[in-house]
Amino acid sequence: MFGLAQQRLLLRHRDDSLSLALTLPAQPGESPIRELTELPWDAAAVGDEPLSQLLSPRINSLPRWLLLPERGGLRRRLSLPGAAADRLREVLGFEIDRQTPFTLADVYYDARVIGRRGDGQIDAELIVVPRASLERALAALGEPLVATLAGVDMADVDGLPLGVNLLPGAQRRRRRDPRAIWNFGLAVVALVALGAGLWQILHNREAAADALEVEAKRLGQQAAKVSAEKKQLVDQVEGLRFLQQTRSGRPSTVEVLDELSRRLPDSTYIERVSIEGERILIVGLSSEAPRLVERLQGSKLWHSMNLTGALMPDPTKGKDRFNLSAELTIAAPAAAAKPARQRAPDPAREP
After folding, report:
1. Do 217 and 308 sit in the same domain of this protein?
2. Which 3 state secondary structure label does DSSP give 340?
3. Are 23 and 7 within 8 A, CB to CB?
4. 112-154, pLDDT tens digit by residue?
5. Pairwise CA distance, residues 151 & 191, whole Å
6. Which runs of E-coded beta strand occur in the chain?
7. pLDDT tens digits for 167-218?
8. For the chain: N or C, fewer Cβ within 10 A?
9. For residue 283, how far is the Cα from the chain centroid?
10. What is the CATH number of the domain that holds 270?
11. Nearest to residue 135, comparing CAs of 100, 166, 174, 97?
């Protein structure tokens, strides 16, 4: 139905009639040949393309083969090495002189493989037809019909074609497949579609790779930003922790002023108190200036209390101007202030 079956139109010349048959794919038990019709035949009375008006266009386009009767030739069965199968016709051409009473120049011949053996040998068959017999059969068909033949086959004892071609290659008609152009066009379209599909797949993969690269860069930048923010946050937390630890161990200005007010005598007043870093500078007037260092020395908020410079008497007020300096006492952070754990003594080492 779809033109996939290798159909042939078989011509069998019988005296004054021409039989037409069609080869078909046969089911088991059925004949592969379907008889079409039998026509009275006179080669001298027919014109060009004598079968064109009798056959449907589909059957008329099939390859035409002349089918010789089984007695029209000679068949010889031979056993050959398996390597001879690739060039079987050439190999059996040298066997014509030995296997038949004819010479190579006097016959038309062909060969076929019948079967293969397990020992690497093949069973082949040589089919030989005398030139004179084949030429008479072709002349009986007439020149117009012979020009349309694609081959000459020979029938077996059951009347079925052997599957050989005894017609010389120069005389065989090469029929053009009407679907060849369409098949070629479809093949080109299929190749173009395949190429387009492969290109589309490649383009999709490249687009996916580019999108993945962009996404990876974006995530990388986002990760770098998060890492930088995390580092900044950690630095801020560490700095805040350091400030808190430093502030927690450093006496406040209120505590320093309170401590000074409690330790200084009533005859002393302060003009200026300056705290720069860990250093305290105290400037004031007192009638007991020489004893101020002794009164301020024992505080826990500072240490190293000293007079800086000489005492300057102030006659208008009857007091001495003094300059004191000290170092603030900074308590160590709690983690650093923990004493190291001492290892318990080993009783075995006791004297």
Report:
1. no
2. coil
3. yes
4. 998 888 888 999 999 999 999 888 888 888 888 888 888 899 9
5. 35
6. 9-14, 17-23, 33-40, 64-68, 74-81, 107-116, 121-130, 149-154, 268-276, 279-286, 302-307, 312-314, 319-328
7. 887 777 766 666 778 888 999 999 999 999 999 999 999 999 999 999 999 9
8. C
9. 86
10. 3.30.1360.100
11. 166
Between CA 69 and CA 12 the distance in angstroms is 8
C-alpha closest to that of 268 among 304, 324, 321, 327: 321
- State which residues form the domain around 227: 176-248
Lowest mean pLDDT among 4-18, 192-206, 254-268: 4-18
Same domain, 194 and 276: no
Contact 35, 121 (CB under 8 A): no
- Please write the tens of the pLDDT for every residue from 46-97: 656 677 777 888 888 888 889 998 888 899 999 899 888 888 989 898 888 8
| SS3 category, 9 | strand
Q: Is residue 3 included in any domain, yes or no?
A: no
Same domain, 306 and 194: no
Query: How many structural domains is the chain composed of?
Result: 3
Tell whether 351 is covered by a domain.
no
**Cα dihedral 248/254/255/257 (nearest 10):** 150
Cα gap 128→147, rounded to integer Å = 22
The two three-digit tokens of residue 342, written as one number? 């001492």
Whether residues 182 and 168 fall in one domain: no
C-alpha torsion angle, residues 131, 17, 64, 48 (rounded to 10): 100
Pairing of β 9-14 and β 64-68: parallel
Asked whether residue 197 falls in the same domain as residue 281, the answer is no
Tokens of 275: 């705290």
Q: 134 and 160, same structural domain?
A: yes
56 and 130 inside one domain: yes
C-alpha–C-alpha distance, residues 103 and 65, integer Å: 26
- What backbone phi and psi angles, to 5 degrees, belong to 253? -65, -35
Instruction: Tell me the Ramachandran region of residue 15: left when phi exceeds 0, alpha when psi lies from -120 to 50, beta otherwise.
Output: left
Query: Secondary structure of the chain: what % helix, strand, coil (to 5)?
Result: 40, 30, 30
Is the pLDDT confidence value at 162 over 70?
yes
Domain boundary among 248, 279, 294: 248
Query: If residue 261 lies in a helix (H) or strand (E), which one and from where to where?
Result: helix 253-263
